[in-house]
Amino acid sequence: MKSPEEIIVPGFRAAGTACGIKRSGKPDLAVVVSDLPCVSAVVLTRNKVAAAPVAWARSLRDRSGLRGVLVNSGNANACTGAAGAAAVRETSRAACAALGLPGNALLVGSTGVIGVPLPVGKIVAALPGLARRLSPEGIVEAGEAIRTTDAFPKRGVRRLRAGGRTVTLGGIAKGAGMIAPNMGTMLAYIFTDAALAPADARRALREGTDASFNRIVVDGDTSTNDTAALFANGACGLPALKGSDLAAFREALRSLLLDLALMIVRDGEGATRVVRIAVTGARNDAQAEKAVRAVATSPLVKTAVHGADLNWGRVIAVLGRAGIDVDPSRIEMRFAGELLLRRGMRPDPAAERRAAPRIRRDAYGIDADLGLGKGSAHAYFSDLSVEYVKLNSGYRS
Amino acid sequence: MKSPEEIIVPGFRAAGTACGIKRSGKPDLAVVVSDLPCVSAVVLTRNKVAAAPVAWARSLRDRSGLRGVLVNSGNANACTGAAGAAAVRETSRAACAALGLPGNALLVGSTGVIGVPLPVGKIVAALPGLARRLSPEGIVEAGEAIRTTDAFPKRGVRRLRAGGRTVTLGGIAKGAGMIAPNMGTMLAYIFTDAALAPADARRALREGTDASFNRIVVDGDTSTNDTAALFANGACGLPALKGSDLAAFREALRSLLLDLALMIVRDGEGATRVVRIAVTGARNDAQAEKAVRAVATSPLVKTAVHGADLNWGRVIAVLGRAGIDVDPSRIEMRFAGELLLRRGMRPDPAAERRAAPRIRRDAYGIDADLGLGKGSAHAYFSDLSVEYVKLNSGYRS
Fold first, then answer.
1. How confident is the model at residue B94, as a pLDDT?
2. Residue B175 domain flag
């Protein structure tokens, strides 16, 4: 899960800069754009209170021909009313003009504080300079400019062979809070020089998102701004991928998205550990999903994980209140592979002693088998630390 | 919400002692018993993983003739299998024998660590001494002996006039974590010298619990042991209460239960503030309830409350992901009475300035009007502090 130092995807250029939205003076404006027409796919937050750029993206009749992204950090442009919607239109128009693109060619994203008017003037003033600095190496710099509370940048690369050529996927993402399953996600942008049919692009992004960003939980809250998008410009020279090439591409995309998602959960605000909770033997998948989500968001479980406390009692109590079918006498539970609970009872103190040092590691698994059916689900979640509280109780004040 | 120094309910005697379950040597065993037959009512946790004493209480064919309670703290007797069930039967039998009562005359309660065998011998050995120390003043002492992580004891008294006599209600409760709506509750025991018909006792306890313990949220987790019970022995000399006397009794019970519930939320682990979240204008009550619960359990909202951060943005983001009908342009929100959000936008920075000092108080309200219908709900929740994390990450280890 180490971030590559360089990301170059043929046919894409990018740049990031500090336009003055963040008082800290850190980079807060990014552009990534394809030199060629693209096939694009976009997944947006399901939060009903959508930020202005999300509402704007939802309103686009067609999201399959976007050429890239314009993203600011430091301001979410959410709960900003008609002025916020106008700000999206104005910055989008100015960016397209600066890049010599037709109107509405870019996906717009914002992330940061809610309820503060977007400083349109600062963005518009910075765009010509940003356009001049675009370069193939700029994707890393763009990734830096979309960070908010992220402790580290999230980016990744995948390469695959198809039709005798190399296909590249490069991705940047941001996010460290307001993370939970069942949303578009935080901001994540994937750029590839493959050619894709629009329906294949949509399906690949949707299935990849479901297996990655929708499987991570930091605090159970979802954001008004979450967006994942894929841009495919075909610069590798192959026709639209099909068959086994398409399958290989989808696998590479899934793998890249999961890497980015795990970086986000590892960077969960104040996180010191990542746990994979897997529930099997549920009555059905929906019940397993409910159980997984209840465990992954329980403050009592998350504090126990933080304290390296082998507290299966809290996990079983959560399963009991998760609103699913549970028969305590059938539950089996493993921490870090050690069977701690069999038929709802503690079987072996020696297993606890073996598990104890393993749950001090920075990643491990909790596996609960409900013993009732074939339903299963899993998620990755971070612990709840003193640092989380400090970060979030002082974030705005 | 000040606890009375003394609680005497005619016809009840009680005592508490340290029998050695808690390593700290603090009181951990309590008995409260009526000298007369009682009409009783019991509300038990809805958690499907029930502790042994809860499973035992559920298995009783009739819970309307119990004479009092035997409660230990320091051990939940949960996830203890057949041995746990046997421990309930054995301690119950020994307690009834020591008190000269028929078998199964007492409700049994346990609270503390999950998954550790209950030390039956220590409890049984302490019972004769506990029986000798029973006194009318002992209810306060019994309340002390049921504490676990409680920072202060929870108890209360109500008196009302009926038929020319004084009717007394005395209550003890414990709980400071694993608190959420939709459960029996933590442990709460109410004793009264009124006479009640069994159906009236059940209804009064159920409605009082719904309006109190089911309206508080500390961390969204419910326990395997939550129990509320009412014991009415008729020692005041009146026949079973009816009509306006019964209505007055129910009102007194509601008021007493709400006091105890608010003491629990104020003593929420690490809590420094209590907020009343009220949602009105929802499509229906069920949607309002969902919204209230989502806000009251959101770590981002709870940390903002802790930091005295006027962060209505986090509240509106939670409303958007709560799975209910929301139209952002119709939402109005008040913090401490000040209108901060009108039609989904921030209307007036001056209102924020007025609200800012008020949300530093130890209790205030957040009112959200969704503007869609007549559904409403409310709950009381505590903030999420550094102290909460410290308490819960170190509780067992």
1. 97
2. yes
Q: Of B123, B93, B107, B90, which Cα lies nearest the Cα of B21?
A: B123
Q: Which residues of A touch B396 (CB under 8 A)?
A: 304, 309, 311
| Residues from chain B contacting residue A115 (CB–CB below 8 Å) | 312-313, 341, 345-346
Please judge whether B47 and A223 are an interchain contact, meaning their C-beta atoms are less than 8 angstroms apart: no
Instruction: Give the helix/strand (H/E) hosting B141.
Output: helix B139-145
CA dist B134 and B141 (Å) reads 10
Decide: A10 and A232 in contact? Cβ < 8 Å.
no
Q: Please give the residue range of the domain that contains residue A30.
A: 12-266
- Active-site residue, from B80, B111, B168, B185: B185
Which of A50, A317, A325 faces B221 most closely, judged by CB atoms? A317
Residues of B in contact with A340 (CB under 8 A): none
A185 is catalytic: yes
Among A201, A234, A266, give the residue marking a domain's end.
Answer: A266
CB spacing of B303 vs A224 below 8 angstroms: no
Are B304 and B241 part of one and the same domain?
no
Q: How far is CA A237 from CA A163, A166, A168, A191, B319, in A?
A: 10, 10, 12, 15, 47
Window B:223-242, CB contacts with A under 8 Å: 223-224
Q: What are phi and psi of B24, to 5 degrees?
A: -70, -15
> Quick one: CA dihedral B2, B226, A306, A180, positive or negative?
negative
A contact residues 37-76, partner B, Cβ 8 Å cutoff: 46-50, 76
* Domain end marker among B214, B242, B266: B266
Question: How many domains does one find in chain A?
Answer: 2
- In this predicted model, what pLDDT tens digit does every residue of B210-262 receive, in sequence order? 888 888 876 555 566 778 899 999 999 999 999 999 999 999 999 999 889 88
Q: Which of A45, A185, A280, A297 is catalytic?
A: A185
The arithmetic mean of pLDDT across residues A125-142, rounded, is 97
Instruction: Give A289's contacts (C-beta < 8 A, 6+ positions apart).
Output: A181, A377
User: Which ipTM value was assigned to this complex?
Assistant: 0.72
Cα–Cα distances (Å) from A38 to A35, A67, A125, A197, A249, in that order, read 9, 5, 27, 10, 16
Give the integer Cα–Cα distance in Å for B153 and B145: 9
Q: Are residues B223 and B287 both part of a single domain?
A: no
Asked if A34 has any chain B CB less than 8 Å from its own CB, the reply is: no
**A271 contacts in B (CB within 8 Å)?**
none
Mean confidence (pLDDT) of chain B = 89
Distance in Å, alpha carbon of A304 to nearest chain B alpha carbon? 5
Nearest to B393 among A306, A318, A328 (CB): A306
Residue A298 contacts B, CB cutoff 8 Å: yes
Is B223–A50 a contact, with Cβ atoms under 8 angstroms apart?
no
Same domain, A72 and A130: yes
Report whether pLDDT(B180) > 70. no
Q: What does the buried/exposed string (b/e) look like for A177-199 if buried means 16 or more CB atoms within 10 Å of the residue's CB?
A: bbbbbebbbbbbbbbbbbbbbbe
Q: Residues B76, B32: one domain? A: yes
**Nearest by CB: A320 against B49, B220, B346:** B49
Mean pLDDT of A104-120: 91
- Is residue A3 assigned to a domain? no
CATH number, domain of A279, equals 3.10.20.340
Alpha-carbon distances, residue B105 vs A52, B61, B200 (angstroms): 64, 12, 20
Question: In this structure, are A342 and A254 located in the same domain?
Answer: no
* Partners of residue A317 in chain B, C-beta under 8 Å: 47, 49, 78, 114, 178, 221-224
